[in-house]
Specification:
The structure holds two protein chains of two kinds. By secondary structure, chain A is α/β, with parallel strands linked by helices. Chain A is built from seven helices and 18 strands. Chain A folds into two domains: 3-172, Rossmann fold (3-Layer(aba) Sandwich), CATH 3.40.50.620; 201-320, 3-Layer(aba) Sandwich (Rossmann fold), CATH 3.40.50. Chain A is globular. A nine-stranded mixed sheet of chain B has the order 9-8-7-10-6-1-4-5-11, with helices on both faces. Classes of the chains: A alpha/beta, B alpha/beta. The structure holds flavin-adenine dinucleotide and adenosine monophosphate. Adenosine monophosphate binds at residues 6-8, 36, 38-39, 62-64, 90, 94, 97, 115-116, 118-119, 122, 124-128 of chain B.
Chain lengths: 321, 249
């Protein structure tokens, strides 16, 4: 099966999730004996594009257009749709861009779309998927029987594997399109913050932090890890201590990091819905009966104001050694 | 201005989910159903826009069984003018649903069509964008802020590490995220008025899906781990476990 991987760039550089998209595309191509093309959108050259071969792309298709400096939904979907029928599967990431783009492409091709998948396989020539539904309370198994299977994969689920492939870059013609919507740019916070859905480590805080200023403790811990984001329970988001974008749980974001550290969070069912698929869960709570300990791999019972600074110090030591 | 809102009936987010005998759908016995929470942002936006304009018409449309009538009445009680029920058992295939919605919306000729960004049952996150493509309309997804002036929409959507500002002109499709507004609750007067508002029900046939659900499964419960120790003194032991056992450090 020929597979198209729709990788992502921002500000002229490939995003990390691109390698995960390729890893998922490789699963399909390898089990069915096929090749992977990666499509890159940009106003010009995109840094990291030449290295995509090493992450599993047999070919890199480079689609350039002045509008592609920013996310251009109509141009991107028209371009993918113009070549999409030649592929058995098209793989996106379930990111802000992929969630917007995948259904557009599926509709243009007249096929179904399976979003936010965590499992992927090929049976015969049919792509099968596993996806969490009902906020992760249920796993849905399904088959995509259309000519092209359109899927988006949950970030942090497929792990990039380096290969020795070169991966040649070829220019791809962009068809004429009408830009029905246009991006007027991206507003960024002053400091670059890693999104909780994409970080390998998430350090989340709850009401146990007592006051908004105390989140500094968690920011320090996240900084010690380096590749970490700060998350929050709904209780502290509703109280206005933290931004909604950081909320983890049923009505917030679903995260699947390698490591999730819950600090001063009781572990309500709605919070668990957003983080139970993390690979390793650590809980720090002074109440030994807090429900968070029922899902945590490792727990420390104690006062977070003593435990967290010590943890930060130890992590810093390791990272700097 | 004519505004349409697409509304799905979904289980309450706190409902305990039990897999049904067919293994492909859930057991609805005893489950409380509510309007999809993200669709409530769309309903509120539609009602508020009409109030601001002082004129216009708002329509709510659902694809579902007759059980969705109750959900549609809730929307009417909030202040939507009329409701349409496209009677069908529904489908997990977003495109199948999008096609019947698109046909109804095309006939109605709306200036603005609002959706939720996702339905909290099947987590598809796709029907709004698909309908827009089928109708060849501009589409902004997951809008957490929206302003409308002189026939132009500007909306903000949360993306990883920032906020993307998107613009388009009417007619358009917008899918709504948390942050857009605070949905009102139906008033007693609204509930009374809703009983007299028009609700047209008509049967539709969904096309054969190209996404088939083969089975549902409950995820494996996480095994409770161990308490490493108490207080800051337990930190070195935790670090050792994270390095040597979990291999995440
Ligand atoms: C429809 C619905 C949707 C919801 N969606 C979400 C969601 O998306 N995400 C979410 O998180 N919640 C959600 N909730 C809310 C959820 O039910 C809980 O109310 C919330 O998660 C509690 O937040 P918390 O753990 O920060 O606070 P609490 O439950 O108050 O817990 C605070 C914890 O901190 C501990 N603590 C206090 N002081 C210290 C200290 N000094 N050191 C160590 N530990 C300490 C306490 O022992 C306690 O366990 C939702 C609820 C509903 C009804
Ligand atoms: N059966 C349905 N009837 C009406 N609207 C629907 C239906 N299914 C989905 N929608 C709309 O499409 C949005 C996205 O749903 P989904 O793509 O299923 O996550 C919902 O928030 C609704 O606005």
């Amino acid at each position: 099966m020929k597979v198209l991987a729709v990788v992502e760039q921002r500000d002229g550089a490939l995003r990390k999730v691109s390698h995960e998209i390729l890893a998922a595309a490789r699963v399909l191509a390898d089990t069915s004996g096929g090749a992977v093309d990666a499509i890159v959108f940009g106003a010009g050259a995109v840094s990291g594009m030449e290295q995509l071969g090493g992450f599993g792309a047999d070919r890199v298709l480079h689609a350039t257009h002045a509008d592609f400096a920013l996310y251009a939904p109509d141009g991107a979907s028209a371009t993918i749709a113009s070549i999409g029928a030649g592929y058995g599967a098209i793989v996106f990431a379930a990111t802000a861009m992929g969630r917007d783009l995948a259904p557009r492409v599926a509709a243009r091709l007249g096929v179904a779309c399976a979003t936010d998948i965590t499992g992927l396989a090929v049976e015969g020539d049919v792509v099968t998927v596993t996806r969490p539904i009902y906020a992760g309370k249920v796993l849905q198994h399904g088959r995509l029987t259309g000519a092209t299977a359109v899927v988006s994969v949950r970030p942090n689920t497929f792990h990039p594997a380096a290969s020795g492939k070169a991966g040649s870059v070829t220019a791809l013609a962009v068809p004429a399109f009408t830009a029905r919507v246009t991006s007027k740019g991206v507003k960024k916070p002053d400091a670059a913050v890693l999104d909780v859905t994409e970080a390998t480590v998430v350090v989340s805080g709850g009401r146990g932090l007592k006051e908004p200023v105390n989140f500094k403790l968690l920011e320090d811990l996240a900084a010690a890890f380096g590749n970490a984001a700060v998350g929050a329970s709904r209780a502290v988001v509703d109280a206005g201590w933290r931004d909604h974008g950081e909320q983890v749980g049923q009505t917030g974001k679903t995260v699947s990091p390698q490591l999730y550290i819950a600090v001063g969070i009781s572990g309500a069912i709605q919070h668990l819905a957003g983080m139970r698929t993390a690979r390793t869960i650590v809980a720090i709570n002074r109440d030994k009966d807090a429900p968070i300990f029922k899902v945590a791999d490792y727990g420390i019972v104690g006062d977070l104001f003593e435990v967290v600074p010590r943890l930060t110090e130890e992590v810093r030591k390791i990272r700097s050694s | 201005m004519k505004i349409a809102v697409c509304l799905k009936r979904v289980p309450d987010t706190t409902a305990k989910i039990v897999i049904g005998a067919s293994r492909t759908t859930i057991d609805e016995t005893g489950v409380k159903f509510v309007p999809n929470p993200y669709d409530e942002f769309a309903l509120e936006a539609a009602i508020a826009l009409k109030e601001q304009a002082g004129a216009g018409e708002t329509t709510v449309i659902a694809v579902g069984t007759d059980a969705s009538q109750e959900t549609l009445r809730t929307a009417l009680a909030m202040g939507i003018d009329r409701a349409v029920l496209l009677q069908s058992p529904g489908s997990a295939d977003g495109l199948a649903v999008a096609r019947v919605l698109a046909a109804e919306l095309k006939a109605g000729v709306y200036d603005l069509v609002l959706f939720g960004k996702l339905a909290v049952d099947d987590y598809n996150h796709q029907v709004g964008a698909m309908v827009a493509e089928l109708l060849e309309l501009p589409c902004i997804t997951a809008a957490a802020k929206m302003t409308l002036s002189g026939g132009a929409i500007e909306a903000e959507r949360e993306i990883e590490g920032g906020v993307e500002v998107m613009g388009c002109t009417l007619p358009a499709v917008v899918t709504c995220d948390k942050g857009l507004n605070n949905p009102r609750l139906p008033s007693l007067k609204g509930i009374m008025a809703a009983k007299k508002k028009p609700l047209d029900a008509k049967p539709v046939t969904l096309e054969a899906a190209s996404f088939e659900v083969t089975s549902l499964e409950l995820p494996a419960e996480r095994q409770a781990g161990r308490i490493v120790g108490e207080g800051a003194d337990a930190v070195p032991a935790l670090i050792a476990l994270l390095r040597n056992e979990a291999k995440v450090l």
